[in-house]
Amino acid sequence: MLIGCPKEIKPQEFRVGLTPAAAGEAIGRGHSVIVETNAGMGAGFSDDDYRAAGATVLDTAEEIFAKADMIVKVKEPQAVERKMLREGQLLFTYLHLAPDPEQTHDLLASGCTAIAYETVTDNNGGLPLLAPMSEVAGRLAPQVGSWTLQKANGGRGVLMGGVPGVGPAKVVVIGGGVVGTHAAKIAAGMGADVTVLDRSLPRLRYLDDVYGGTFKNQYSTAAATAELVQQADMVIGAVLIPGAAAPKLISRAQLSTMKPGAVLVDVAIDQGGCFETSKATTHADPIYEVDNVMHYCVANMPGAVARTSTIALGNATLPFMLSLADKGWKEACAADPHLLNGLNVHAGKLTYAAVGEALGLDSITGQDALNI
Ligand SMILES: NC(=O)C1=CN([C@@H]2O[C@H](COP(=O)(O)OP(=O)(O)OC[C@H]3O[C@@H](n4cnc5c(N)ncnc54)[C@H](O)[C@@H]3O)[C@@H](O)[C@H]2O)C=CC1
Ligand SMILES: CC(=O)C(=O)O
Ligand SMILES: [Mg+2]
């Protein structure tokens, strides 16, 4: 198979879909790899690194999209990229379609087959291609939140760990999955007083067993959330209902109950955000204020630490990418129901029910798509 990797064009996105090591593995199995010039620069990989792995470096994204059988990326294709996708072409990347009707429309119109990293599953009920970026975004969340809490950035001027004689910041994490657990660990490590809310009792039991001495946890009801949010210096949004739009757990009216200068970090923004007042921002202009509450809502947080993130993502995508290249998408998905769960679009049809529900569109099952 001819595998193509364009340079990411989303603002301030420095990750790359294929590492030289991944390109080398595919080439070692008889595939060919084309990479856009400078695609890996932001993550510290030069064109020569890709050439040394056996890949061919091309000058433009147009050539990559025109030639490749499979496009491997990081972020959802931007409008100009979507115009270059063609019928029968395989796209393997993050999509986050539920909050994005324009992208969904364009992917359906292109006739391509699109497998979304974020809905591929594993045997443990996890999301193996989302997990590494959730680990990164979770660990970054208290870091960017504490920067936003600084007075010069609009925050209330509270230090995460406090100092002797002055108490620490109060941090509330809504959602105790991968993002939430990593966020809570780092916030607690910075000395903050941390409470994690989740709606899954098995998850709360796990958090209690493993991290009981490090941070508190509580069942996530609207009442518990309202009470904790009033006292919080920082709230980190980390909920997920896979593939679906995030539920709104803090309303605009609730902002007036919060401390002026408190900070909301909405990591769930890529699924539409879990605070009513969240709107996606970029690394170039990451924060804004609503009703005296600071918001950080960057939808591609891991891009800020592109080298760590690229290598972590590449480790997770490699076996799936190789399976798609070796077998073609149909055989690979027929053999692996977890990879089939990643199928969101095929031949003009939506193939992921939660996306259809979020956007009011009809969908077919992945199994049906295998027969088209
Ligand atoms: N902004 C960014 O750059 C990034 C965003 N993300 C996003 O972060 C979000 C979280 O991802 P993960 O932690 O990997 O998901 P996860 O599935 O590991 O955890 C989500 C948790 O939310 C809980 N939950 C669901 N509804 C809830 C509610 N009403 N109240 C409290 N908890 C609730 C679930 O029980 C689960 O434990 C996703 O939307 C993901 O796409 C992930 C990586 C990067
Ligand atoms: C998960 C995701 O969307 C990201 O890493 O950008
Ligand atoms: Mg994202």
Automatic annotation (TrEMBL):
Residue ranges of every copy of the Alanine dehydrogenase/pyridine nucleotide transhydrogenase N-terminal domain listed in the record: 4-137
Catalytic residues (UniProt): H96, D270
**SMART domains listed in its UniProt record:** AlaDh_PNT_C, AlaDh_PNT_N
Signal peptide as annotated in the record: none
* GO MF annotation terms: alanine dehydrogenase activity; nucleotide binding
Q: For the Alanine dehydrogenase/pyridine nucleotide transhydrogenase NAD(H)-binding domain, which residue ranges apply? A: 149-297
* Any GO CC annotation of this UniProt entry: plasma membrane
| Short name of one Pfam family | AlaDh_PNT_N
Keywords, alphabetical: NAD, Nucleotide-binding, Oxidoreductase
Q: Which reaction does it catalyse?
A: L-alanine + NAD(+) + H2O = pyruvate + NH4(+) + NADH + H(+)
Identify its protein family.
Belongs to the AlaDH/PNT family.
Q: What is this protein called?
A: Alanine dehydrogenase
Instruction: State the organism of origin.
Output: Aliiroseovarius pelagivivens
Traced from the root, the source organism's taxonomic lineage reads: Bacteria, Pseudomonadati, Pseudomonadota, Alphaproteobacteria, Rhodobacterales
